[in-house]
Structures are given as structure tokens and as C-alpha cells.
Amino acid sequence: MTTSKPNTTFWIIAVVALLWNLMGVFQYLVSTVMKDMVSEAYGETELELLNALPSWYNIVFAVAVFAGLLGTILLLLRRKAAKPLFLLSMLAVLFQMGYWLFATEAMEMLGVQAAIMPMVVIAIAIFLYFYSKGAVQKGWLR
Q: What is the pTM of this model?
């Protein structure tokens, strides 16, 4: 397979994906490492939900965001290894957000808005995996 030069849209998507994944890493750090420092910013209900999450949830969260960030960096470097990292990130996102939506009381406690961001995160994770898969097929990644 020959490598071809990606179009401008590829670079725009890759840079936006980098910003998105950096925000994901920041959110992970805020909700885990810095949780005690920013707990005042959370409402009582949100804090109750976060404190009730099992310990493995944060591990899956870390896998999702750091695999996504590394995948994005590799996408910017035009490396095929981005695709399996986006797959790992997508699977972790599906597991993490599926748990949040269906195994917690988030919807009952917070209402339908508790599903909006998880659905956005799921959609973007799926998009990035299939976009990286297409980029490999088009020869943009080597």
C-alpha cells in the first residue's frame, strides 16, 4: 500500500480531536486526582454520584482518555498505530458511559441532561475510530 498525502480536512479533524482528547484528560484529572480540590464546584447530587462509582470506573476512564490522546497524537504523526488505540478508547468509552447511563442512578437524579454528554462522547469515540480506519485504508497513515 502506498502512502498518500491527507487532505486539509484530515488535519482539521486531527487538531480538533487533539483538543477534545486534551479536554478528556483534564476532565479525568479533575474528577479523580483533583476531586477534593474542586468538590465545591460539583452539586451535592453530582458528588454523590461520583463518590458511588466503583474504583474500576476510574481505570476504564483513564484507558478511554489516554488511549484517545495517544491515538490522536499518532494520527497527527500519521501512524497506523492510531487505529488500535482509537479502538481501545472507543471500547473503554462504551463500557464507561454504558455503566454511567444504565448502572447508576444518574438519569433519575439528574434527569435527561445526564445522558447528553455521554452520548456526545460515545459518538465522537466511534467517529474517531472509524475515521482512523478510513485514514489507514486511504493510505494517509503509515
A: 0.91
